[in-house]
Every structure is written in structure tokens, then in C-alpha cells.
Design a protein that fits this description.
- The chain is built from nine helices and ten strands.
- With about 270 residues, the protein is an alpha/beta fold.
- Helix content is about 35%, strand content about 20%.
Amino acid sequence: MFQHLIVPIDGSAYSWTAFPIAARMAQAVAGKVEVVAVVDRLADVALARDEIARDLERYTDLPVGPIVTLLARDDAAAALADHAATINGSMVLMSSHGRGRSAAVLGSTVDELLRLTFGPIIVIGPHASLDTGSLDGSYVVPLDASHAAESAAPIAAAWSVEFGATPWIVEVIDPAISLAEDVVEWGYPARFARDLTLTTSHPIEHEVLHGARPSRAIVDFADQLNASLIFMSTHGRSGMDRFRLGSVASEVVRHASCPVVLNRPPHMKL
């Protein structure tokens, strides 16, 4: 679990949208929020610190005040990854446009951090509601019958036990695909939810979604639940190759109204 949320700031107004959400999450875990800016040169540190101080004047009513850290390095993702590694219980929470159709273009810093770190990253997309930041409620966990995609489920289950949330294991089925007569469409998510419930002694729900666009089905279901979080692997791939979860994750980040917890399976780390 996390006790220290790191919010990367790049000087843009958009990057600051993650900060209030991080503050609310930090309050829920009695933790800390650290605003981190990476500059190319030591000479830019003072200017960046002044800019951050001015920006923070807009957030005086938040429940947790931030620590401010400036890092001088020409590789922002490596600087953030190395910094996070020095802090026990840290997790990066950051804004991303989630543009593009593959995980490789989720946002260069997000993608590089997923490559360099061994923990999940909480990503705030452009359509995330600014009043999100709750850790209880409902979690949506999309799976595609691959081990890579399933790696996000234990994280969601652990958080749900800690914060009293209800995870929903979901699978998206394209209506154009005909299943064999002896295949029950809800069988896979039902079995997975049952096994995870037995492992955690915590209730896990399940649902089958239908749609030609998995990302849209996932986002719509999360909206129906008023979900607090969506948990996804960035490189899941089903045996039937129905969809590539990396590209779906990118689309979910782009459209979700809640934060998305992205995880890269350990065997895919570089």
C-alpha cells in the first residue's frame, strides 16, 4: 500500500489537476503528498520553485499540504523513478492525456515510469472528475483471460480489503463474436471472482460487458457504478486476440471519469 503520493508537475495547468485528487487520497491513508518538478539545469531550480509556490496559492483549502521537491536532470522519467525508489510506501499519481492507441503513447513520462518502476501508477486522464479521489466504493478490473491482464486484479483486491471497496471483475465480449454452444459467457469472470474471493476472504463481484469497443464498455460500466478506480494492466493480450489491453488502457485513461491504476506485469519490465 502507499503512504506517500508523488505528483509530477511540468509547469502546465493540466499537470496540476492530479494534485487535489492526490491530496484527498493522502488524507484517506493519513499520508503525504509530494509535488515534484524536474528541470534540465540547476539554474532553473529557483524559478521553478517560485512558479510552484504561485500555483499552490490556488490550493489552500485542500486537506493535505504538499512537500515540494525540485530535481535537476535531463531525463524526467528516470529522475522520478529514482526519486520514488528512495521513499518507502511511495506511489506516483500523475495527469496524462492518454492519447494514442497504444500504451506506448499513453504519455511519454507515464509510459517510461511504467517501464522503470515496479509498482502501479495512478493516472488521471483528461475527463477525470476533479472531485474524485475516494478509495472506497467500487473498483472496475477488466480482464481478457491473459496472465498479463490478470496481474492487476491482486492489486485491486488488496486495495479493496484495505479501503473497504468492492472490486468488479469484468470481461468485454464483442457481440459479433459467436461463442461455442458449451461456453457460458460469464464463466471466466465468475470463476476468477470466486477464486479471488476465496483467496482474500473479501467479496468480489463480476460482470460480462458487451461492446465492439472494449474501452467504451469499460468506461460506461465504471460510470454506471460511479466507480472510484479502474485497475488495468498495460499489456494484456487474450489468447483469442480479441483485443490488446495496452491500447484499451490508453483509451480508458483518455475517457474515464475516475483515476486509472495502471500496472505493467513484472515479466514485461525492461
